[in-house]
Each structure stands twice: as structure tokens, then as C-alpha cells.
Amino acid sequence: MARHRLTKKHRTIAMALGGAVLLVGGALTAQAASSGGGAPAAGAMPARPVSLSKPATFTGRAFDTCTAPTLAQMKAWKTASPYGGAAVYIGGKNRGCAQPQLTRDWVKAVSAVGWKLIPLYVGAQPPCKSGSDPERMTAATAASLGATDGADAGAKAGALGMRPGSPVHLDMEGFDTANTSCKDTVLTYTRAWNKALHAKGYRTGYYGFASSSAAVVAAVSPGTDMPDAIWYAAYDDTASTTTNYPFGTKWSGHRRGHQYAINKKETYGGVTLTVDRDAWDAPVAVVAK
């Protein structure tokens, strides 16, 4: 995501390691466009839990930044910026920044002035991912860690006043998708995380690179315990969830987010923030009044 996760240079390396997609001239390669595309397989289970009520959705521009801004900053940006949605890191052992602003009262206050919030959880990372992380999954621990982290994500969302029915996105950074064991481990963790979060009544989302982590999930979705929404990173500077969309017809019906640019310094209402830019057409948090 923002600076705390990967620099743009390191993200480019991670995307290349995925081996499926590279951005070329502002568009995705033909290989990317075909990987995971097409209609759902016959007999596949729906990608969203049928027992949940109709979600609250937002269509427009959103941003994500490492540390949640202050209420005053959020008010200034709501008045002057083109953004209507904001992602917030609600938990996970790999969350990289402190969140002194992120409280139940903050969530209620920023929602009251019109912000649509997108909860994000930085869970265990792949065993074959480069770098170091406080929490990594292994083939032996993926299922149990996924269940524990998914339950924790639901608890964290509830503590912030984000009601069941809200989505929580799992942040899965780029990894070598040619490593079959690593890929299978990620899928095991993701399924367990989704199942645990669904059990608490929350929708599940998944943030990942179009070239690697998101492509792995797209290849097996829809299916049992797969994400209800996708938030894919593809840095083509195109604020759209349809133009150059890499996964065919999957996650249609207001279930897509697109991170299209990162680490951009912007000033609105006298407040300067460094943000990642997102196009959003997907569920957002349902906040307790």
C-alpha cells in the first residue's frame, strides 16, 4: 500500500516476480487480460455470502495513506478534495504505522461529515515474499493463522463501530506466483481468513497486485470462501475499475477497487497529505450511529 509497505521500486520488482502482468504503455498485457477472465465455472459457489443484507456501496475516488489523518484534516479534505472514500488500516500484526487517530469516535465523526470508509487489515504475509514481516504464514500454520486473523479483523472492525455487513480487505503483498507451494499456502490462509470473517457477519475484500497476489485469487474465484470484493493494484494512472480491468467479468456488480497511483503529495484546504489514489466501486463500512 503506501510508503510503509513497499516503495514504488520494490513494488515494480514484486509485480515482475508475479510473472503474470506488467504495465506496458499504460495498459495491461494480453496475458494479464486473459488470466482469470471469463465467466465463473459451472457449479461454483457465489463469491459473496448470501445471508448478508444489501451492502452500502460507494462509487468514486478514494485514497489510502499510512496513518489515518486527524479529524480536522479529514474535514478540510472533504470540503476541498475530489475524494469521497478513505481506506484505514484497522489491524494486523504487519500493520506498519501507528494509528493514534483511529478510534470509534473518529470513525463516527468522519462518517458524519460524509466520508465513506474502507477497512484494511494487514494479515500474515506469504512465506516466499521478500523482506521481513512480523507475521508470516507457512504451509503448516496457514489455516490456523487465517482463522485467528480473520476473527481478529472482525473484532477490530466491530470495536471501531463498523457494523457487520461492512467489508474488511485483506492486504496481501506481492510474491513469486511461480512458487506453487507458496501460492497454495496463500490460498489456504485467505480461505480461512474469509471464512472466519464471514462467520462474524462481515464481507471480505482482498487487496493485491494485479500481477501476483490478486491474480492468484482471481484464478480460483468465485469459489468457496473467496473474497466478496477485489481491490487490485495496477499503476496505470487510470481512475477506473473497468478500463484495463485484468480479471474479465469477475467481481462485477459494485465489487471492485483499483489502486492506480501511489505516493502522491496533494494539498486541499491547506492540508497536505501523501496518498495512494484509488478508483472505487464497491462496498464500504456501515458505521454505527
Structure explained in plain terms:
This protein has 289 residues and is an alpha/beta fold. 27% of the residues lie in helices and 24% in strands. It has seven helices and ten strands. The chain has helices at 8-18, 30-34, 71-80, 104-112, 142-159, 180-199, 213-218; strands at 23-24, 27-28, 57-64, 85-91, 116-121, 167-171, 203-209, 229-233, 256-268, 271-283. The strands form two sheets. It has an eight-stranded mixed β-barrel with strand order 3-4-5-6-7-8-9-10, surrounded by five helices. Strands 1-2 form a two-stranded antiparallel sheet. Helix 5 (142-159) runs parallel beside helix 6. The protein is globular, with a radius of gyration of 17 Å.
- Cα(first) to Cα(last) distance is 29 Å
Following the backbone from N to C, one meets helices and strands in this order, namely HEEHEHEHEHEHEHEEE
Structural class: alpha/beta
What proportion of the residues form beta strands (DSSP E)? 15-25%
Indicate the overall shape.
globular
What's the multimeric state?
Answer: single chain
Radius of gyration: 17 Å
User: How is the biggest beta sheet arranged?
Assistant: 8 strands, mixed, barrel
Low-pLDDT segments: 2-50
Number of strands: 10
Relevant terms:
single chain, 289 residues, alpha/beta, 8-stranded mixed barrel, two-stranded antiparallel sheet, 7 helices, 10 strands, 24% strand, globular, disordered N terminus
